[in-house]
Design a protein that fits this description.
The chain has helices spanning 14-26, 37-47, 63-71, 87-95, 108-127, 162-173, 181-189, 198-211, and strands at residues 6-10, 30-34, 51-55, 78-83, 100-104, 136-139, 142-145, 150-153, 156-158, 178-180, 221-224, 228-231. With 235 residues, it is α/β, with parallel strands linked by helices. The chain has two domains: 6-127, Rossmann fold (3-Layer(aba) Sandwich); 136-231, Orthogonal Bundle (Arc Repressor Mutant, subunit A), CATH 1.10.10.10. It has a five-stranded parallel beta sheet, with helices on both faces. Strands 6-7-8-9 form a four-stranded antiparallel beta sheet, with helices on one face. The chain has a three-stranded antiparallel beta sheet with strand order 10-12-11. Helix 2 (37-47) runs parallel beside helix 3 and helix 6 (162-173) packs across helix 8. It is globular. The two termini are 26 Å apart. The structure holds calcium ion. Calcium ion (CA) binds at residues 12-13, 55, 57.
Length: 235
């Protein structure tokens, strides 16, 4: 029997911690719980978890400082748990190196899907360090061919501008993960001192018009309100 994956749940609210621990345990994860930031940091070192589920509002320290500390020496996957209203926190957490976030209140299936995806991404990076990146990304009818710098929908070549291609290629390289507006702006246009999303929104509207059946209800590129965009990774 394969070893169970160990999840460190960092949560000071007992009811949420209990709910999460129950869901994960019954889905064959090995669960350890920390109620403070100090406990969490100690357990990351002593218990070697495979993933950290991190509540940002902790009694003794800001959750983002835990991300910063862990990221200074480890690529351990971190999923941040945040309240719906705190978009700025999510962005900050992602920019600091969190892998993903989940918004309270959340259900078991969403929680499990996020955890599976984060562990899978981490495992893929570890299994083939320095391996050549994939030549293609394919999901549903969408194909991103990085070699030919082409995007196809149902086999038909989509005519994209350079920047439109660069945006979708970047999302494809990180499929399933949220890329923040700031990250995309920096990668495509360089420094963006005004923090202006307009140029990105215009490009995204064009991409969606070209690849989505119904741009108002995108099937491939999802908007994470106030945070960024995520490319569908398949079911
Ligand atoms: Ca809390």
């Amino acid at each position: 029997m394969p070893l169970k994956e160990r999840v460190l749940v960092v949560e000071d609210e007992k009811s949420i911690g209990h709910f999460v621990a129950t869901v994960l345990t019954s889905n064959n994860y090995d669960v350890i719980v920390a109620h403070t930031g100090a406990e969490a940091l100690a357990m990351v070192t002593s218990q070697s978890p495979d993933l950290v589920l991190l509540d940002l509002g902790l009694p003794d320290m800001d959750g983002t400082s835990i991300i910063k500390t862990v990221r200074s020496w480890s690529r351990l996957p971190i999923i941040v748990v945040s309240a719906r209203m705190h978009e700025r926190d999510k962005v900050e957490a992602l920019d600091m190196g969190a892998d993903d976030y989940i918004t309270k209140p959340f259900g078991p299936s969403e929680l499990l899907a996020r955890i599976r995806a984060a562990i899978r991404h981490a495992g893929a990076a570890e299994a083939f360090p320095g391996a050549a990146p994939a030549e293609k990304y394919q999901v549903g009818d969408l194909v991103i061919d990085y070699d030919k710098r082409q995007v196809l929908v149902a086999g038909v070549n989509v005519r994209l501008t350079q920047n439109e291609y660069r945006i979708i290629a970047l999302l494809g390289r990180h499929a399933g993960r949220v890329l923040t507006y700031d990250y995309l702006l920096r990668e495509i246009w360089g420094a963006n001192p005004r923090g202006d999303n307009q140029i990105l929104r215009v490009n995204m509207a064009n991409i969606r018009r070209k690849i989505e059946k119904n741009p108002a209800e995108p099937q491939y590129i999802f908007t994470e309100a106030g945070v960024g965009y995520r490319l569908w990774e398949g079911d």
